[in-house]
């Protein structure tokens, strides 16, 4: 009996040491319940302020918001996964000793993200029509700009996650799933920015996604296109993309110099 207890304790210690040595894993455990509580708390607050006559409009905007949010999430995963697949297959050294240039690598990640996000989101767009009578195609040309901006944000988020993966290794893989959801309460996906506490609203306005989702609600409810929000989101995404590319490029060069790609799969 004592030998069995020791073996159980030994296996417990093994996993405890792995968890203790990885702040990313600890963060993942802590943040999921907190994010769910905060997100659904703001959603409940939003619906509490809706009048019965406008409730069906609010419910309609949720479908569009869900589709756009999923597109953002899949765009970010598409960029991150293109690196993680090489890491899982222990192919990093082979890839980066090839003549592949940084700009070609970055372009390939974006292209893979577009393909992955398109395959994932198109069935949902089609199913929303017979199930709920909601079609984003009826929103017209503005929806193209909204879709582009959420994908744009997913690209630079994915590049920042990739830079973190290069520096920290597989221990930070959980952040590839968690990064976008960490920002969900601030992106005002399912409720307007005004629902947030006053001290959080400047942070929300600093994210392109909050302007995209505010624009979506105005397009659905008022049938008008707030082009100022669309262009603001595009300008912000452009600035963040330049920053993300810079960070990823510096991390990439540092990894080449220090030989991180030779041992990052371990």
Number of domains: 1
Ends distance: 36 Å
Helix content: over 70%
Mean pLDDT: 80
Low-confidence stretches: none
Question: Your description of this structure?
Answer:
- There is one protein chain.
- With 266 residues, this protein is mainly alpha-helical.
- The protein has one domain.
- Helices cover 80% and strands 0% of the residues.
- The protein has eleven helices and no strands.
- Helix 3 runs antiparallel to helix 9.
- It is globular, with a radius of gyration of 21 Å.
- The chain starts with a helix and ends with a helix.
- The model has no long low-confidence stretch (mean pLDDT 80).
Summarize this structure briefly.
The protein is an all-alpha fold. It has helices spanning 2-20, 23-48, 55-88, 92-96, 102-132, 142-168, 174-187, 201-205, 208-222, 227-258, 260-263.
Chart the SSEs and their pairings.
Layout: H1 2-20, H2 23-48, H3 55-88, H4 92-96, H5 102-132, H6 142-168, H7 174-187, H8 201-205, H9 208-222, H10 227-258, H11 260-263
Helix pairs in contact: 2-7, 3-5, 3-6, 3-7, 3-9, 6-7, 6-9, 6-10, 9-10
Summarize this structure as a short list of keywords or feature phrases.
single chain; 266 residues; mainly alpha; 11 helices; 0% strand
